[in-house]
Amino acid sequence: MAGYGHPYVIHAANLAQQQAEPVRVAHEQQQQQQQQVMHQYQQQGPQDALAQAAQLELGQNPNALAIRRPFDPTAHELEANFRLTRFADLKGRGCKVPQEVLLKLLEGLQDDQNQEEHSAHFMHVPIPRIGIGMDASITPLRHSGLSLVQTTDFFYPLVEDPYMQGKIACANVLSDLYAMGVTECDNMLMLLAVSTKMTEKERDVVVPLIMRGFKDCALEAGTTVTGGQTVMNPWCTIGGVGTTICQPNEFIIPDSAVVGDVLVLTKPLGTQVALNAHQWLDQPERWNRIKLVVSEEDVRKAYQRAMDSMARLNRTASRLMHKYNAHAATDVTGFGLLGHAQALARNQKAEVGFVIHNLPVIAKMAAVGKACGNMFQLAQGNSAETSGGLLICLPREQAAAYCKDMQKVEGYQAWIIGIVEKGNRTARIIDKPRVIEVPAKEKEGELW
């Protein structure tokens, strides 16, 4: 693959191929459970052949709790106390430059010329150009009214399972395209930093698993990984680049919200809280802080739900944006629900404001967040999310149908969480928002 010339990287890529069967054995449930999953999956609605093939291979039924066993380091001949998240000192919001600082730093990259003066035209129709500040860049090409849509993202380890970390990283990159209504990705590059703190054995186990997870998620999205860059680094990082060529009707410029629209969110909040709570199971002084409001079983289940949510593509949500005439959208990631809502509000042509009333949260995580005081600020909308859902501005009369269709097509909920009113292009959460526990009731043997 282009960009992967380092001898170790070639070695790792070979390992990813050679270890395919042991990886599958170590990470997937027994054959009988896989057959049950296949049967359940075949009962669902039609999807792309590539996505279906990937789903069947991996046994990913979203509602089967036991589909994926927790990552067991000893199954790969690693020490029992191996933790992938120890190979970086920051994660979640902590690894991002604060939003207000970032905006100042990016001022030097902004084009001094008026965007309208720069607009390309095809058959006398202007083709939009989007640069700094939104989820993906849109650049008109020289040929036939086409545009280049591109995005990049990477972060540090969030979960202990290297395979799932690879999937989450890939889903997170693609989410920026999906937020623009782009449902097809033509090409992906992988960006990977191998930690210098890893032993040779840890490296040879972890890196092929991360690469395989990234590749499998790309396959599920109907795209391929054709190259990238790999380096040695004190901290482990994983991410990539997503690129596609589009016609104007294949993307949705996120600037057309109007008074009367409603805000829809397609994934629950609380991933950062769940990931931290799971790490605290190994840290008695921190666990004692939350054990009165949540059990160990609750935390393990919330962790599984967070991983499932982060690894799930926003592709269906993006497709339905076209069907239900979405006016604008963004994905909710490192700056939290409020941070991304504010960024979207600033980009609107009309003088509107966003008001958020409801917060769908992974079950029990709101209580954990509250027990931690101001550490996460989940109720204030400042808790970081990774590979979160799409926040979409939809016509009021279309929103309920959108949510119903999401449930029907994908088997996951979406929620109406707020309204668009006349305002000064800002967003806010009401003082006492309604917390929606997700799921509302526990079901034996099911994740959601």
Write the layout of secondary structure elements.
Elements: H1 7-18, H2 20-27, H3 31-42, H4 49-58, H5 99-105, H6 115-118, E1 120-122, E2 125-127, E3 137-140, E4 147-155, H7 162-179, E5 187-195, H8 200-220, E6 225-233, E7 237-246, E8 262-265, H9 271-280, H10 284-290, H11 296-311, H12 315-323, E9 328-331, H13 336-346, E10 352-362, H14 365-371, E11 390-394, H15 396-410, E12 415-422, E13 427-438
Parallel strand pairs: 5-6, 10-13
Antiparallel strand pairs: 1-2, 3-4, 4-7, 5-7, 8-11, 8-12, 9-11, 10-12
Descriptive account of the structure:
It is built from 15 helices and 13 strands. It has helices at 7-18, 20-27, 31-42, 49-58, 99-105, 115-118, 162-179, 200-220, 271-280, 284-290, 296-311, 315-323, 336-346, 365-371, 396-410; strands spanning 120-122, 125-127, 137-140, 147-155, 187-195, 225-233, 237-246, 262-265, 328-331, 352-362, 390-394, 415-422, 427-438. The strands form 3 sheets. A 6-stranded mixed beta sheet has the order 9-11-8-12-10-13. Strands 3-4-7-5-6 form a 5-stranded mixed beta sheet. It has a two-stranded antiparallel ribbon with strand order 1-2. Strand 3 (137-140) and strand 4 (147-155) form a beta hairpin. Helix 9 (271-280) crosses helix 11 and helix 12 (315-323) runs antiparallel to helix 15 (396-410). It is globular and about 55 Å long.
